[in-house]
Design a protein that fits this description.
Length: about 240
Amino acid sequence: MLVLAVVPLRAADAMMTQPAKSAQMSGLHYLAPGKPDAATLLAPPPLIDSAEQSADMDEVHTVYHAAGSNDMAAAYAEKKFSVFNFTPAVGTFFQSNSLPRTAAFFEKVQLDAETVTDLGKDYFKRPRPYTTDPSLANGKLEKSFSYPSGHSTESMVLALVLADLLPDKHDAIMAHARLMGWHRVQIARHYPTDIYAGRVLAQAIVKSFKKSEKFEKEFAEAKAEIEALKAVGKN
């Protein structure tokens, strides 16, 4: 526990001018406050000035400079996203205007994931790659911290729940979520370790969701809505 207490303070010293996004637990829909807790679940990010940090930064440089224009464009387009970013992996029937219950359900799923992730960011206070190395700055930059990645966590949470609803599309859904997370490295918004931490946190969040009766009830309602729409499409 001593390491967890010291690492964020060291990172904060390098980020005195970068405000952290305040995260609150009061608006949770399916999670109990502090369940899961990113600060105790995740290992801390690499120490500043360590060989591990240098290797993480080197990979950001390699990935960023190798990224193609299509990957960059996709990454920028995903700055704001929802479960309906997975429509290409699921099928054209999967549209928000056709699935209002499902849309509302996944909005709450994503908001809970965002809250947990933001609390982790504010705890670890890891500077983003372009803050540490301004040569990586591109496009409109975020002011929040880097670890764990919100995009990686939220997209994987959405994917895990969506794959439970549509198990026949599991592999395509999971591949899409992993790509969304990796896009953030391609535009130097995150280190690879931020992305991997997000995937671990996502699994813990979904595991906690499944302890909620409200989540299970609304999951069943979303499943029924999806199945009804698919049945109409077959007729």
